[in-house]
What we know:
The structure holds 2 protein chains of 2 kinds. Chain A is an all-beta fold. Helices cover 0% and strands 53% of the residues of chain A.
Amino acid sequence: DQQVKQNSPSLSVQEGRISILNCDYTNSMFDYFLWYKKYPAEGPTFLISISSIKDKNEDGRFTVFLNKSAKHLSLHIVPSQPGDSAVYFCAASAGSNDYKLSFGAGTTVTVRA
Amino acid sequence: NAGVTQTPKFRVLKTGQSMTLLCAQDMNHEYMYWYRQDPGMGLRLIHYSVGEGTTAKGEVPDGYNVSRLKKQNFLLGLESAAPSQTSVYFCASAAGLAGAFDTQYFGPGTRLTVL
């Protein structure tokens, strides 16, 4: 049973507009969340993270929002660029002494020129 | 600084054959992981290691074995390959900082096909 769910397999957005990727989780022990980006034929690369003590973390064009009560997080990309076309994975960890990450199935983002 | 490297990049096996996938990292990381990625499934943890000489089972360990004889290397073995093990395999490593949240760094992947 997947504890991290990304219910949208794909997202298409026009260049310059906002991309919003959603992620839901079921394990209330999760308290650290990450987003990874993956290009074809490459390994995932870390993009941004958020701890459960925060509800927002921003890094340049990327912002992650966390709603603990709803067990939901989202990644906003503003403005979207062609180089953002990739698969985005949401991942979660249950504490700083938990060595493992649980991943969602991924969302494929296509940025149209 | 190569980061995390994986050998080989591609491999085709026949059912019942065995093989070993090699992962190497040059970041002096304590933790290492093996994942498989299948369509619609995301990344699933096969086995992991929290230090040299240690290994532990992840979410989908059946049919795989691992060894961590040296800190920088993590080997994934398939003793008798099955078509269900056709997948893309990713290795990752993390620093293992006590009491800190860790980012995992991934290798480029190995695409394995079992006929």
